[in-house]
Design a protein that fits this description.
Length: about 450
């Protein structure tokens, strides 16, 4: 990193948007949950696709890598700078176009937060479907690049299903703009789809054309006690019949307990009174409570609307944060076919040493478990190996929604198989021959940011 490059970057984005002071860089060098830490010689904050393109040309000429960063809420270390790379913050690309009601679409800059996008859509009577706890900070560009999921995937799909088009900048500074949002287009393979989930390794996303969905103003939720995981899967089968079904989340007793302790609230149901808890949400244009009550008639649970429903979702949204407050967990984000959830959880418990504490929750409708292990210590690599192996052997995936980042690079080839992995590597080499875009993410390349070890 040379003074000449800093000079060039300042000429592109303005001196105030090239941050070189350690104090100014600090928040960009550690992720939002403070689990990963790295360092960068400077943070660059462009405001337009043109500026992003000029920045990429400048760093390429200097042979310096870049790490794109949105809200920095990623959980696999992919947004944390390493190896002397320039940190490219996309937060200033925060323009929001007018909602196109006829197309049910909107164009959003990469730096727009998911929460701002939701508010913007709702002001026009529509909604943005992808939703999760970090919505106030996570950005459109980050969500596209990680193919974010969240709680409403069963109804509306992941981020991939919302992306109608993208604007993105390649490593050589060339800009591709496909923002027309055409629902039908067969002019070759769909480039925007290739970039979804590419974690900043193939291009920098600068804007997205996004699908909007109906805004359901009436909602009812329930927290239901289940005797076992297979019982929760039986409940899921019954819930699938409900036309208003919006989300089906799973909280194992420990997860319910730590979130309520963190929030200092009384748990809505005694965490020790069941083997698993299912949080169901229904949303429609008219009150869906009766629909939900029919399914819940023979079950023990609490039905909640209005502020009580908000409390249930506050609990759900705070599980990750509550676990983070207890220490730095070994975090695994896996998914299996729902019928395999019980064997997966059995194998997690078999893998975890008695001194460690496993806190499990996730998205039941998608068979997606977030496995958090506190106190794993030196057993962490062995536990990780056994849990990820179990996910694959049970027909699932080692990464359901958080991505590969730097945390799981050693597993991508095993997950995909030789041919698919080789194809992805070939695409990476073709689009970024100098390996300047987020090196070390998806594919191995040293050095990595360090995991913060607090427990
Ligand atoms: C409390 C909490 C709960 C969470 N729950 C969920 C959940 O339920 N579902 C879920 O899917 N995720 C969840 N996450 C993870 C995280 O919020 C998502 O991965 C999110 O999509 C990251 O968005 P971001 O803007 O913060 O991206 P960042 O963390 O900044 O970046 C993530 C990755 O995308 C790349 N990137 C970012 N912006 C761009 C861009 N414009 N162009 C190219 N590459 C880019 C980065 O280089 C990095 O590799 C949760 C996180 C937290 C802290």
């Amino acid at each position: 990193m040379t003074d000449a490059l800093v000079h060039d970057l300042r000429a592109i984005v303005g001196a105030t948007h090239v941050l070189t002071d350690a104090d100014m860089r600090a928040t960009y060098e550690t992720d939002w949950l403070q689990q990963w830490r790295g360092d960068t010689p400077c943070v660059v904050r462009p405001q337009s696709a043109g500026e992003v393109a000029a920045v990429l040309r400048a760093v390429a000429a200097a042979g310096v890598a870049v790490v794109p960063q949105g809200g920095n809420t990623g959980l696999v270390g992919g947004s944390v700078p390493r190896g002397g790379a320039v940190l490219l913050s996309l937060q200033r690309l925060n323009s929001l176009g007018a909602v196109d009601a006829a197309a049910q679409q909107v164009t959003a800059g990469a730096g727009v937060t998911i929460e701002s996008l939701q508010h913007h859509a709702r002001a026009a009577g529509l909604d943005f479907a992808v939703d999760w706890g970090a919505r106030a900070t996570a950005t459109v560009g980050g969500a596209v690049s990680t193919n974010a999921g969240g709680s409403r995937v069963g109804r509306f799909g992941t981020m991939r299903a919302q992306v109608m088009g993208l604007q993105a900048v390649f490593a050589d500074g060339s800009v591709v703009t496909q923002l027309a949002g055409l629902p039908k287009e067969t002019a070759g393979p769909h480039l925007p789809s290739l970039l979804v989930g590419s974690e900043g390794t193939l291009a920098v996303v600068t804007a997205a054309r996004l699908r909007l969905v109906p805004w359901y103003r009436c909602a009812a939720a329930a927290l239901v006690a289940c005797d076992s995981l297979p019982d929760s899967v039986d409940l899921l089968a019954q819930l699938r019949r409900l036309p208003s079904l919006d989300a089906v989340e799973l909280l194992m007793p420990e997860a319910l307990s730590v979130a309520c302790d963190f929030l200092r609230i009384e748990p809505p149901l005694d965490p020790t009174s069941a083997a698993a808890f299912v949080l169901v949400d229904c949303a429609a244009h008219t009150d869906p409570s009766d629909e939900l009550l029919v399914v819940l008639a023979d079950r023990r649970g609490v039905l909640a609307t209005g502020p009580q429903r908000d409390v249930l979702f506050r609990i759900r949204d705070h599980v990750t944060i509550a676990i983070g407050a207890l220490g730095t967990p070994l975090k695994l984000d896996v998914a299996v076919p729902v019928g395999q959830l019980d064997p997966l959880v059995q194998r997690v418990h078999d893998a975890v040493a008695s001194a460690a504490r496993a806190i499990i929750f996730g998205h039941l409708a998608e068979g997606n478990l977030h496995v958090n292990i506190l106190g794993a210590g030196t057993d962490a690599p062995a536990i990780r190996e056994r849990v990820l192996t179990a996910a694959v052997e049970l027909g699932g995936t080692i990464s359901a929604e958080h991505g590969i980042g730097v945390a799981k690079v050693d597993w991508l080839e095993r997950q995909l198989g030789d041919a698919a992995y080789a194809a992805l590597r070939a695409i990476k080499v073709a689009l970024d021959p100098g390996n300047l875009l987020n090196p070390g993410v998806l594919f191995p390349s040293e050095p990595r940011p360090s995991r913060v070890a607090r427990v």
